[in-house]
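Hello again, I could really use a second opinion on something today. I've been puzzling over a protein and I'd love to understand its fold better. I'm sending you its amino acid sequence along with the backbone structure tokens. It would help a lot if you went through both lines with me. I've dropped the whole record in just underneath, so have a look.
***
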Amino acid sequence: MTSVTPRIAIVGGGPAGLCLGVLLHKYGIPFTIYDLRNKPMKDFLSEPSGPLDLHEETGLAAIRSSGLWDKFVPLTTECSRTLKVVDKHGRLTYTNNGEQQHRPEIPRNALTLLLLSSVPAENITWGHKLQNATRTPEGKILLNFGSNGTAEYDFVIGADGAWSKIRQLLTNIKPHYGGVQYTTLHILNATSRYADLSNLVGPGTCFVLGDKNGVFSQRGVEDSIRLYVSISTKSEENLEKATEKVTVASLKKLLLTDPDMFGMWGDETKGLISTACDEEAARMKVAQLPPFKPMYMLPIGHKWPAQPGLALIGDAAHLMMPWAGEGVNQALRDALDLANATATAYRSSQNPTEFRECLTPLVAEFDKEMFSRTQAAAEKTWANSNLIFSASAVQAMGGMIDSHLTKLD
């Protein structure tokens, strides 16, 4: 690039957007990241967050290419790779101590700060929520941030999550309900305060399954237990409405007595849910916990034709539920591949017009590879969801885990 530099915007400062920013900065390509949140404070790292299991061909490949491997490795030591499956009465049905696994885990907040540390502060604009995006008569993309004004760009990457505003310029496809509702709860300092519950879920990841519902736990900072309390239901709205603006006592009564929820579970597993409700309310200093929320997914195999000046990565491109651990991995791989395509166009052009013309076919190739790669991940995720929330989940889960780990060897 020897003349006027093209303007590039990344909408969304999650792992996908930040990783793309790290790579573009490494390649010497100017860009701006917009994120609706305020800049994370120093205590962000100490907040409970679930560990992310990064895969060799996707997440770890992006970390290595970003030049962050040496900083990444020390951050993975907090996470145990032990896997447990427990039935609704608290009986252990499967365990794996992680010896077969070769994939580092990192707390989500630690990954965010790691990526953020390699993006110059002047390249990120915080507190900007995108209202809409439109194409100008000149073919550029106009971003409207409401009271924060507008900005015009030659290339805009939508890393803005499930309800992406950028996606609306490329396709009418929207996320649909995935059949599961969930809420997130935490128990801090679990080993010293609740030794029995700490032993129940173990030091790593635990699946407590029964009656087509589940409680999924991960360990995190401050010896915390992070619980995803999940209920399978065909209704997208009923559970959210039933758990909205109710007291903690009322929520516990609903969860622990309704036979369609956890009413038929044993005392030990009910105690895990009850304690987590109380602990979350105390941690948040609230009398009412957030309601259950529906999980959404984009249609498996959906595609769109490439258009000049636009690309999607991460959940904006291929939102899927968390049942295969693929979301962040695919997002980081997206960032790696799109950064390489962008760098090729940037080095081959002399002005913004040439850049857009050179980039469009490269984005089309990027899309083609991404569609194929993420369709396979989405299919695996959907198959896992159907198993996890089935009547035979406890019996089948161990076999599924072993089969998955065998493929990694």
Q: What stands out?
A: The radius of gyration is 22 Å. Residues 195 and 260 are 29 Å apart (CA to CA). The mean pLDDT is 93.
